[in-house]
Every structure is written in structure tokens, then in C-alpha cells.
Amino acid sequence: MRVIVDTSIWSLVLRRHSPVQNPETEILRKMIENGENIFLVGVILQEILQGVKERHDFIRLKERLDAFPMLEIEREHYVKAAELKNHLINNGVQISTVDALIATSAIVNGCYLYTNDKDFSHIAKHSKLRLLKIS
Fold first, then answer.
1. If you write DSSP's letter for every residue of 41-68 in order, what string do you get?
2. What pTM was computed for the model?
3. pLDDT means over runs of 10, the chain (135 residues)
4. What is the DSSP letter of 133?
5. How does 5-27 read in b/e, with b if 16+ C-beta sit within 10 Å?
6. What is the span of the domain harbouring residue 41?
7. What integer pLDDT is reported at residue 22 of this predicted model?
8. CA trace torsion 36, 135, 46, 38 (10° rounding)
9. Would you state the pLDDT for residue 15?
10. What is the CATH number of the domain that holds 6?
11. How many domains does the chain contain in total?
12. Cα–Cα distance between 113 and 135 in angstroms, integer?
């Protein structure tokens, strides 16, 4: 299974002095241990790293995230993200530009999106976005 892990999940695991113990973090831990295909996209990497103030923490976190391959965003993906955002607006759903790009990255790369951000549930109802469900 191919999975993009959203900032909302990474922040539960990585940005705190002591990781939060909850189903989301446990599922991510198990996915990593099982060798699942976990990917990053640039905007998620940026969102994770931009909140780290101390340089040594920044470098350490960047090195940990280097283990996860990046999905490149091509020109046509930006066009598809704009189309997705327009489609959602026409269906009464407002989303951010960044969320449209993350959702499009998951769709075009055949990935599930692992997130606890409720905005993506609205996107999934009106698109081909597949969310990783916690059961």
C-alpha cells in the first residue's frame, strides 16, 4: 500500500517532546515497522520542518524524514489541483490551496492519504481521494 502521511499525523509523532500515544501514532509506527511505502510531498515536509525552532532539532528531524521518499509534483499536478479546488467550490466545499495540492498528489500517485484533518473527508466525498481509515 502506498501512503502519504499528512502533517496532522506527523506532528503528533515528531513535534512534541514526548510523542502522543493514540491510535494515529500507533498506526504510523506499525506502518513504518512493516515497511509500508510511506511518502512525503514537499509541502508536508515544509510544514513539518518550519515549526522546528532549534537548529539541531531541525537537522535531526530532517535526517529522520530523509528515510521517506518524496513524490515530485509536476506542472500537470498543479493544474489538477486547481481543477479539484474549482470542482469542490462548485459543490460548496472550501479547501485551502495546500490541501488541494496534497489531495491531488495522493490521487495522481495512487496513494492513500493518512490524516486526521477533517477537511480531507470533505474532499474525499467529492473526488477520488482515498483516505486511510482507522478501524
1. EHHHHHHHHHT--SHHHHHHHHHHHTTS
2. 0.92
3. 95 70 87 95 96 92 96 97 98 97 98 96 97 82
4. P
5. bbbbbbebbbbeeeeeeeebbeb
6. 2-131
7. 82
8. 10
9. 56
10. 3.40.50.1010
11. 1
12. 15
